[in-house]
Amino acid sequence: MCARGPARDSDGMPSGGPHDHATGTCAICARAIEGPALADHASARVFHPECVVAQAPEDALIRLLGFLALIATPTVLLWAA
Ligand SMILES: [Zn+2]
Questions:
Q1: What percent of the chain has pLDDT over 90?
Q2: I want to staple 66 with a disulfide (CB 3.0 to 4.6 A). Which of 12, 36, 52, 72 is the partner?
Q3: Where would I find the H helices in 1-81?
Q4: DSSP 24
């Protein structure tokens, strides 16, 4: 008789991976993003709008998106209230 049990590769698999959510950790400051976030689909990273503006990256498009998000965020909050 073979006493070996079945392999349990999937045992204890975590349900909350870092890639489970559309928003996650800011790629600039490494802090959790709560609320509006900017997503760079090319690199699959997300950023705080304020971090993007503060960092002033070379990518003009990202900078523009950060600027627009800073303008749009208070409007969205007022609209949602
Ligand atoms: Zn950040």
A1: 9
A2: 52
A3: 49-55, 60-80
A4: -
**pLDDT at position 38:** 86
- In the reported structure, the alpha carbon of residue 48 is separated from the centroid of ligand 1 by a whole-number distance in angstroms of 4
Distance 25 CA to ligand 1 centre (A): 8
User: Per the structure block, which two tokens stand in for 72?
Assistant: 């749009």
What is the model's pLDDT at position 32? 93
* pTM (whole model) above 0.70: no
What is the Cα–Cα distance from 9 to 51, expressed in whole angstroms? 40
Q: Rounded mean pLDDT of 23-39?
A: 87
How far from chain centre, in Å, is Cα 56?
19
Q: Which two tokens stand for residue 68?
A: 């627009």
